[in-house]
Amino acid sequence: MRDLTLIVPYYKQPRMLEAQLAEWEEFPAGYKFVVVDDGSPEPAYSVVKWHSSDALRDRLKLYRITKDVPWNRGCARNLGARFAADTEWIVQMDIDHILSASAAVDLLMFEPEPGRWYRFPRYRVGAADETRNKDDLPRDCAFGKIKPHIDSYLVERSRFQTVFYDEDYSGCLGGGSPFLQHLTREAGEPIVLPESIFLSVHTRNSIPDSSEHSLSRDTSEYSRRKKDKEARGDTLPRDPVRTPWQRVL
Known about the structure:
Order of helices and strands: EHEHHEHEEHEEEEHHEEHE
CATH topology: Spore Coat Polysaccharide Biosynthesis Protein SpsA, Chain A
Strand content: 15-25%
Oligomer: single chain
Strand order of the largest sheet: 10-6-9-4-1-2-3-12
Mean pLDDT: 96
Low-confidence stretches: none
Number of strands: 12
Shape: globular
Number of domains: 1
């Protein structure tokens, strides 16, 4: 690949964003970065302003959704891909997942197959918090391999433009699975990238604000909406990026 855009949503995670910025400073030429502030009460702007170099900001775009809608990450990802990214291939990545600078070199050298999409090998950093109970690792294990993440992947931007997140699920936890099912129908099963191109997911025992813990993680509202949509035969997303937004940097 000649160039590549990393898209990361942000919500009340300044220390986690600092860690991302520090890693991005070491990335090779060819990378562009998009941070989408999902209406966070603690805006990303000050973090980017004080913890990134001029050189990094030259290849970084910062957008902000101006209304704080809980669990609006689908809109943030849609915004990053549809209006901010301009490269052929993009990486959608949760902010608590870090692609190391060395892995970034290998990813840029990797030649993906057109029409396919890719997931990353993944390692957990830090003992488990309550969001990581599903990991196939002992809770007190500070480092170990776990399954690839469903919402961190490499995909063609043109593919994402036709298979995007359904914002009918904004406001509740959930919505990633319908997107991935649609993407799999269109582009086949994901391919796991080579082992050297891995992500490190940090728990709150590694970086205290790595994951959002002030919002409800009850998925019953998502399940209700999904059931209603399926009963209506309304399973395809429409009207992406419904929440007002602005470009900050």
